[in-house]
Amino acid sequence: MIHLATGIVIREGRLLLVASRYPNHAEPLWNLPGGRQQSGELLAETVVREFYEETALRVEVREVAYVSESYDGEKHYLNVTFEVAMVGGESSFDKLRMTRDELRMTAEGDDHVAAVEWVALEEVATRIVVGVVREPLIAYLDGKLERRYAGFHDAGVTIEWPTDSR
């Protein structure tokens, strides 16, 4: 089972998203900041670490927004999405107006991250093309995600992780 943690932060009617490159996809895929849990790490620690690596922003975990799970063949994915808050307030928000290259200089950096962008809430559904990511997120944002849970027997997408050593 692969454990993932992602974070939701909304400012001025915009959701922070990242576009990540994967070896088996021609174009980057948009998603919430986050990623795979490391050994010995709690999922709340995963989202804080991954958020910083992908955006150069420090966040703190507020609460669980929802849990989703899916299968890609025999691979079972479990993703916990947290509501997070930026540490540092407006100065952190202003930092995201910088270019991705400027952000990369201050972050530990993940070469698979192609872009970081504040996306208007009404554009999120068209930006995120992977259904197992998009559907629970949109339902959550609309207040329509029953039990704060979404399950998919077939992810409908295969992800090859960069330097897949975990």
Total beta strand runs? 9
Order of helices and strands: EEEEEHEEHHEHHE
Give the strand content: 35-45%
Total of domains: 1
Detailed description of the structure:
This protein is α+β, with helices and mostly antiparallel strands and 166 residues long. The chain has one domain (2-152): Nucleoside Triphosphate Pyrophosphohydrolase (Alpha-Beta Complex), CATH 3.90.79.10. Helix content is 25%, strand content 36%. It has five helices and nine strands, in the order βββββαββααβααβ. The protein has helices at residues 43-55, 90-95, 100-106, 124-127, 131-141; strands at residues 2-8, 10-11, 14-20, 29-31, 34-36, 59-72, 75-86, 113-120, 149-152. The strands form two sheets. It has a five-stranded mixed sheet with strand order 5-1-7-6-9, with helices on both faces. Strands 2, 3, 4 and 8 form a four-stranded antiparallel sheet that branches. The protein is globular and about 40 Å long. The protein starts with a strand and ends in a 14-residue tail after the last strand. Residues 103-109 have low confidence and may be disordered.
Short précis:
This protein has a single domain, classed as Nucleoside Triphosphate Pyrophosphohydrolase. It is built from 5 helices and 9 strands.
